């Protein structure tokens, strides 16, 4: 399995034409998945997801359910 910055990721071809799925497994955050239209785009998206997961101080605040604006 390939690695980027020490984190493993996978890229597989989807069932539909021009469908590529990627997945990363970050120890602290769990698995993240996504879909792209080409293998190269899927690799780049996985690497960007790894960069975001490893970025210090980049935690996002999520409001509790029910407190979302309508």
CATH class: Alpha Beta
Give the name of the CATH architecture: 2-Layer Sandwich
Poorly predicted residue ranges: none
Please provide the count of β strands: 4
Termini gap: 43 Å
Supply Rg: 14 Å
Could you tell me the CATH topology label.
Answer: Double Stranded RNA Binding Domain
What would the principal axes of the Cα set say about the shape?
elongated
Could you estimate the helical fraction of the residues in percent?
10-25%
Instruction: Tell me the major beta sheet.
Output: 4 strands, antiparallel
How many independent structural domains?
Answer: 1
Task: Kindly summarize this structure in a few lines.
The protein is α+β, with helices and mostly antiparallel strands. Helix content is 23%, strand content 33%. The chain has a single domain (3-54), classed as Double Stranded RNA Binding Domain (2-Layer Sandwich).
Provide key terms for this protein.
single chain, four-stranded antiparallel beta sheet, Double Stranded RNA Binding Domain, 70 residues, 1 helix, alpha+beta
Task: Give a verbal description of the structure.
With 70 residues, the protein is an alpha+beta fold. It has one helix and four strands; from the N terminus they run E-E-E-E-H. It has a four-stranded antiparallel β-sheet, covered by helices on one side. The chain is elongated. The termini are far apart. 11% of the residues are buried.
